[in-house]
Every structure is written in structure tokens, then in C-alpha cells.
UniProtKB/TrEMBL annotation:
SUPFAM superfamilies: Ribokinase-like. GO terms for cellular component: cytoplasm. One of its GO terms (biological process) is phosphate-containing compound metabolic process. It comes from the Eukaryota. Keywords: Metal-binding. It holds the Pfam family PfkB. This is Carbohydrate kinase PfkB domain-containing protein. One of its GO terms (molecular function) is pseudouridylate synthase activity. Residues 50-188 form the Carbohydrate kinase PfkB domain. InterPro entries: PfkB_dom, Ribokinase-like.
């Protein structure tokens, strides 16, 4: 939530960004289980602007509990899918990061459709579905992982890049997983070679 000053963000709400009275959309990436549901607790502003969330399984569990969605202690793939599909009633697109398993995309659209139509409207024209996209080959090998710092940011950047290129869901996630894989194999949070992946 912006303070009265220009461009400053109140640190008590960071990393939560609310855009009030503007026609903007928000992607929320929780960064910690302790604060995963906080964006939903500070007021109703998120309801009309929040289009994407990208929690990991533990953060998804906390968010699910906030919305009184039954959650499992184990949060295996089936439990994760169940929580994400119920969460769609509140947030249109849930992208759950699953570590070595990949990414689970949950939304009311087909995988061969882009996230937005030509008019910039979010596509939500079918029943709720979840699709698992496995991690890029080799990305999950522990001996090849140099750092996990920045992996989620690179994944998000890849999807947003794909959205701007009007790629369908499959294309967006493909770019995103390649970007995340690059990040895992770099000591830099955002690898210098990320630009090469995004240009392909």
C-alpha cells in the first residue's frame, strides 16, 4: 500500500503491493509462510486486481486455511491440487511451485489458451482445471543446483514475458521453467544468461 510519498512502499506491507483506484493487475508471490495470507487480511482492495498468485505448497496451505479450505497436513500433489482448485473462487490463476516436481497451474481455461485475450481480459471460459508441468530435465539434480535464490523470481519473469508475447499457457510455462532452471544453476539470483532464454 503506497504511502503519501511518491513511490514509497510502507515496509509493514512489503512485499505486498496494492494498486488502488487504478486499472492494474497484480501478481502476488508469497515469500514466507508467516506472511503468506497477509495480502488477504489488509482489506478488500485485492479482490478486483489480484489475478495471479504463485505460492509454494506450504504457502498454499496457509492461504487455503485463511479461506477455510480444508487442507491436508501432508500436502501431497492431490491435496495441493484440491486446495488450488478451491482457491480459484477467490484468485483466478494459482501457480503452485512444487520444487523438483515442477509447477501446478490451476485456472478456468484450457492449456492451449493464453492467459489474456486480445482485449486484455483474463481468460476464464471453462471449468477449473489443474495441470502439472514437470521441471526442466536436469534442473532437479541436487549436484547441479548452485543456488535456489531467485528461482521463483525467474519463473515469474518467464511467465510474465510469455504473457506479453501472447503465448499460450504451455508456452508461458515452458519459458518460465527454463528460466527457473537457469537460475538454479547460477550463483546469481537472476542469471546473466536469462535474457537469452527470453529471446528464444
Amino acid at each position: 500500500m503506497k504511502d503519501g510519498g511518491k513511490g514509497s512502499v510502507n515496509s509493514s506491507y512489503s512485499p505486498y503491493i496494492f494498486v488502488s483506484h487504478l486499472e492494474r493487475t497484480i501478481w502476488y508471490e508469497p515469500t514466507d509462510v508467516k506472511t503468506a495470507a497477509k495480502i488477504f487480511q489488509v482489506g478488500p482492495q485485492w479482490k478486483n486486481v489480484l489475478h495471479f498468485i504463485s505460492p509454494n505448497q506450504n504457502e498454499l496451505k496457509i492461504i487455503g486455511e485463511h479461506f477455510n479450505i480444508p487442507v491436508s497436513e501432508s500436502m501431497d500433489l492431490m491435496a495441493t491440487k484440491s486446495v488450488a482448485e478451491q482457491l480459484i473462487e477467490h484468485v483466478p490463476v494459482v501457480i503452485t511451485t512444487l520444487g523438483a516436481q515442477g509447477v501446478l497451474v490451476t485456472r478456468k481455461a484450457l492449456q492451449n489458451e493464453p492467459f489474456y485475450d486480445e482485449c486484455g481480459e483474463l481468460i476464464a471460459d471453462s471449468s477449473v482445471a489443474s495441470r502439472l508441468y514437470p521441471a526442466v530435465d536436469g534442473a532437479e539434480k541436487a549436484n547441479e543446483i548452485l543456488s535456489v535464490s531467485g528461482c521463483g523470481d525467474c519463473l515469474t519473469a518467464g511467465i510474465i514475458y510469455g504473457i506479453h508475447k501472447n503465448l499460450d499457457e504451455i508456452g508461458c510455462i515452458s519459458v518460465a521453467l527454463k528460466a527457473a532452471s537457469l537460475s538454479l544453476r547460477s550463483f546469481d539470483a537472476v542469471p546473466r544468461t536469462l535474457r537469452d532464454v527470453l529471446r528464444r
